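User: Fold this, then the next.

Assistant: Folding the first:
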Amino acid sequence: MKILTGQQMKDFDTQAIQKYAIPSLILMENAGRGISQVLHDRIENLSDCRILIIAGKGNNGGDGLCVARHLMSMGVTVEVFIAGSPDQLSPETQTQAEILKRAECKIQYLMQQRALSTLKASLQRADIVIDALLGIGVKGPVRELLQPIIEQINQCDAFVVAADLPSGVDADTGHVGNIAVEADLTVTLEYPKLGLLLYPGRGYAGEIVATPIGYPATLKASFESGIEWVDDEYVRARLPQRKAYSHKGDYGRVLLIAGSRGLSGAAVMAAEAALRCGAGLLYMGYPESLSPIIERRLLEAVKFPLPETGGALSEEALEIIERLMKEPGMDVLAIGPGLSRKPSVVKLLHKLLPQVKVPMVIDADGLNALATPQGRKIVKKLQASAILTPHPGELSRLIDQEISTIESDRVGIARKTARDLGVILVLKGIPTVTARPSGEISINSTGNSGLATGGSGDVLTGLIAGLIAQGMPPEEAAPAGVYLHGLLADRLKPELGERAMLPRDLLRIMPKVLKEFG
């Protein structure tokens, strides 16, 4: 599903109005009907609920007034407040207010502080509150009368529904200036807005439901946002299917270089993830002293103990890895989990990576080896597609930026890094953002804090590599792998909660979850 920024949504509206001659009142009417229908479908005994709608002066307020009319037609008791005076309303919102007036719906205008006592009393009686104050236009702090109105909404016990976007949340960044409505449900119009998916805005949105409001199919198909929300539909459309008449070679070969003394678990989990997600063959290179562990834990892998020094790979391992890379049909290299940061590993990777001609998934200590002036030069000279999967700390070292800077603009930083380095960047976190060198962005829709445990990233590395081996293009395998990784955690949450979840649990449930995809 496409994701739009606030400005893109305005451009989208403009095209609908100017190019397709759709009056804005029609779009407003459809928005009101759509939001009302979502409430009807999701809330039992809606007609028994007391609903309070708080509208603003702009077109988001008009959407709210239209919702009031549609709910009234369903037999729902509705009370309406507008934050402003009648002469301040946008033309479309004035029209909606006049329609409500003629339908004998009383509108109460909040023009001064003393009117807030009336609102407070109504909020205490309401079962549902609909926020239609600001919409996508807000930038910076909420001002004047709106701040105490939002404070009262947040203090009430009612179920709060935001129309399109919680008031006070920046539609582009998710930033909250001084206050924002804390919604239980956000009914976003046609497409999710970027600020709904980025923190802190995501924390104010509650459940997010998109409702169509009648934009022409040709406009929706032609409008490029450059940002997509990765969901079940995205993955199902791209996940490689298994054929009845096939063999292991049809599902690809992964070469995994991983592990060091004390970090053998990272290698094992990455390997099992690649195999569990469907890769046909897994070749595995690791320090030779780990053989007793690897031989016992991984029965299906083709194993290659490699020369080491002090428990980590030595430069002498390069010749064997080069030979493995020349194996017929080697499809993808996954490198980094548990390798350690020892100088011998860094030197090995600096020599190896520029030679690789198949797609690469580089994680963990593979990324740390690139977080040097020489390493950054190597990244720009890679011959094949490379997927880098850093968490904010690893990206901070790689691009020499503060973690706080990265977290304040996850999309912007990920996009710039992918362009500058010419890589597919998977910036892990909430939400995980995948950026391509073209500037296109994918935002993940799954996952929870159960993934915030050492080893989860190793599972993700194996997952993405396994998908590439089966034929998925790297630019699709990265967001699809991230989605499935988060889905595993979401499926485990009812059973284990988030606190006690471990990466090995992701591997345990992987067969059951992947079975859902055929």
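Now the next one, as you asked:
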Amino acid sequence: MDISALQRARYEYQPKLPAVLREPIATIVMEKGGATEPMTDKEAIKALFPHTYGLPAVSFAKGSETGHAKRINVGVILSGGQAPGGHNVISGLFDALKHANADSKLIGFLGGPSGILNDQTLEITSEIIDAYRNTGGFDIIGSGRTKLETEEQFAVCAKVCHSRGISALVIIGGDDSNTNAAVLAEYFLRTNAGIMVVGCPKTIDGDLKNEFIEISFGFDTATKTYDELIGNIMRDANSSKKYWHFIKLMGRSASHIALECALRTQPNVCLISEEIEANATSLTEIVESITSVVAKRAEKGLDYGIVLIPEGVVEFIPEVKSLIAELNTLLAREASRYAKLAKWEDQSSFVIERLSSANAQVFSSLPTDIRKQLLMDRDPHGNVQVSRIETEKMLIQMVEARLSQRKAEGTYKGKFSALNHFFGYEGRCAFPSNFDADYCYSLGYNAYLLVANGCSGYISSVTNLTSHATEWKAGGIPITMMMNMEKRHGEMKPVIKKALVELSGAPFRYFAEKRDRWALETSFVFPGAIQYFGPAAVCDSVTKTLELESSKR
């Protein structure tokens, strides 16, 4: 098989591990901390998770020889969207498993959680894993979004694991996937199934984090990939000096990606969804703010610039959020009647006639293309598919209209030409950065130690990440510790609480202090491509977000 020189070099890269994980596995011992509990909804979560609630946080340390590890079979599942480094989690898990006992087996379930329900597997061997080390993607076993959440599904999982002699599952996924891992672990303990479940924190959105999960894997690589693309566009804008680039970035529920990219590249404008929601900033105010930056730069002869937009920002704008909520309800209630309408004009009239007057006014004020996107097919939960709403185009059209008004008023004399971009899939399967390669390998290696020590309902935790990898700390925390209760499909459900951008946090405060200067000056930074070889300051650097967050610890 033909491969690139970089691909060959990455196969040979040896990920760095915390010092404790470099010890012979038989000498690594587990130390327990005190009992844990979630920040909120303690009684409700305790009632739902009687077997895994209040478990201690654990850490690993060098100890004395503990004896030969028994042979075990471990199953592994990749769940949800791709994130750079997933292959290295599996590589670390595989290597630790084999270091402990060469006869142990790692069995991958194909296509995500549906693989265990359908009993579709691949035994991962040295030959297979060596072709995926330090590479992007999830193609070694594939991924999927099937949820493991019903008793019937859990019973199937137990049956399949028993038939294959599997005594532990490692589920690699985001907040929903790890919530499902906790529910599955509770079921296995309640039914004495003899199967452990351990999670690994994955999501490029960066919203699965806390004191013990300092960063979710893939965020570092994805944002550095976007940083390069944004920097390239900035250089082009600074060269041609005639375009405003509106760039939408991944991140439906949180703006961590947009904020990190802003910290690294210094755009003229970056919207932060959490700030918009906190201040109840209207769409009109957002448009006016961007328009003012465009006009002020034009006064300096700078008819170009960069605007970064989080993917899910429309759901945080009060009047648009209200509109989307009513549309979701309306189209669900009137689904059969609405389905009979073939013409856009009829669909638009149907909706406007049935919306509240305030929401009908908002709907009518939006560009036609955006209105059409708001009425597209809903997702499986009946909600608008926010990623398909071209917010960047909407803002371009609305800013353009406002600038035309200003020109007519004589308060704007510049030229406005805009281009739109959406950076999403470009970042999900890149070669992992050295940081993600090291971090993910450590997470997988560490996950085996949790299994070996009988920890079920835990998530693999590697911390102290701004230090050299040898100084990283390894351990695990109970997933229930990260939970709260939220309404899902009309019912209160236990879920891992999403970590949103903290407006009082160091990363946002740094951004807020700088953005007014970035708005009017051309302060662009050009990060360039991810570097894998060279000085550690270049190749092993962490995200600006993590760097700023750690500075307060």
